[in-house]
Design brief:
The chain has 3 helices and no strands. By secondary structure, the chain is mainly alpha-helical.
């Protein structure tokens, strides 16, 4: 007995692909920014900013960008795993790995790579 209808699985496949594209775009922006920063730094006469506050701002910006890229990378791995589960065992997609109960469709719509119904993923 299928938990999700064929239409719901197709919809969730589309959601997973949308989220995958979003994560890839985040990673691409991070790589482009790092490359641009490196090219800009290569043209500087000095590695030190003109004002100490600039160095702090640059450090914070780099840290935030790195954390966003790390999160996007982790999400991308979860999304790819969810797509694999969907393609290999579509009849079991949407069933909690911990309880064996159906994951609410509303949760899957918000977090299509969810492995559980209510526990954190």
């Amino acid at each position: 007995m299928a938990i999700l209808s064929e239409d719901q699985r197709k919809y969730l496949e589309g959601r997973l692909k949308e989220e995958r594209a979003r994560a890839l775009a985040t990673l691409r922006r991070y790589d482009e920014t790092r490359q641009a920063d490196q090219e800009e730094a290569d043209g500087d006469l000095s590695r030190f900013p003109f004002h100490p506050a600039d160095q702090g701002t640059d450090s914070i910006d780099q840290e935030i960008a790195a954390r966003l890229a790390e999160r996007a990378s982790q999400e991308l791995a979860e999304i790819d795993a969810a797509l694999q589960r969907l393609y290999e065992h579509p009849e079991r997609f949407g069933i909690s790995e911990t309880t064996g109960q159906p994951i609410p469709f509303e949760r899957l719509d918000l977090l299509p790579w969810a492995r559980t119904g209510t526990e954190s993923t």
